[in-house]
Amino acid sequence: xxxxxxxxxxxxxxxxxxxxxxxxxxxxxxxxxxxxxxxxxxxxxxxxxxxxxxxxxxxxxxxxxxxxxxxxxxxxxxxxxxxxxxxxxxxxx
Length: 93
Prior knowledge:
Shape: elongated
Largest sheet: 4 strands, antiparallel
Mean pLDDT: 84
Strand order of the largest sheet: 3-2-1-4
Number of helices: 2
Distance between the termini: 33 Å
Strand content: 25-35%
């Protein structure tokens, strides 16, 4: 479940991360589309359901619809980083 949520925001930033140079590693998921709701596509991969965000900037070829088998390429990118204070007595790097 947590993996699915992380992938959701990662896919939204796919185009932006590509513009930043080498960027993060590219991954892919393949399976049938089980839902398209707004800017989110849900793909069934084995027993898991993967929710991935997309927008008008996402390159799409073919007829994207429920039931179609798709291969989606995505990248993971952090959207926020919160640094916590060091524990008392902890040494920094």
